[in-house]
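User: Is it possible to get a 3D structure for a protein together with its bound compound? The compound here is S-adenosylmethionine. I've pasted both below.
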Amino acid sequence: MSVREEFDAWAAEGREQGMEERHWHTVRPILARMPVEAGDTVLDLGTGSGYALRALRERGIGAAYGLDGSPGMARKADGYTDDGAVGFLVGDFDHLPFADDSIDHAFSMEAFYYANDPHHTLEEIRRVLKPGGTFYCAVNYYEENAASHDWQANIEVEMTRWDRGEYREAFRDAGLHVAEQDNVPDREIEIPDESAFPHEGFESREAMVERYRTWGTLLTVGVAP
Ligand SMILES: C[S@@+](CC[C@H](N)C(=O)[O-])C[C@H]1O[C@@H](n2cnc3c(N)ncnc32)[C@H](O)[C@@H]1O
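Assistant: Yes, that's possible. Here is the predicted structure of the complex:
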């Protein structure tokens, strides 16, 4: 199944709202770290409902572009804002429809690992970033987060599961400096007491604590030279 088919179906089911609510727990502190300045041009890769760009606009960024491979998602995102500075485009991570050195900062949450060729996607990001521009890459599906390993079984788009070191190496191979890498815990999701388990796919409370409070979201930050 293609990205378009998979995520158009998610959009038709209204799943962009649930993603936004869940992802916001760790995206909020990540966006707060981004060194955006008034007037900057920002790109969100795999934008979903477009919530990250809406939040960044409140910090005065200029043009904001949300790229998504699903026309259904892009339409949903467009429907959540009437801000003329925010634009949503249908396109694939394989080819970013932007000129060289045209983007100040890029962001992506829970989308990068769906790239058909993640190494090439990083090269594309490097190409479109201005010198000194950053890529804040956030993922919940990664090697150290054992609870994420079975997610591929529920989705037909092929997912790339790298570990922390593989992210750093791939960023460097694409010509990006790695400025930082961090696990951002989800402190907002409610974790019930022992008696509630099994709960939401977790056999034990310990496993759920590990998933959210220990591993959370893996953030890798690249900087274009
Ligand atoms: C799991 S959702 C995450 C959405 C949003 N970033 C969030 O945090 O809720 C992944 C999004 O990335 C998009 N996507 C996945 N692979 C893509 C690709 N190769 N090119 C463009 N968009 C892609 C999907 O259509 C989907 O909207």
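The chain has a mean pLDDT of 97. The longest strand covers residues 129-139.
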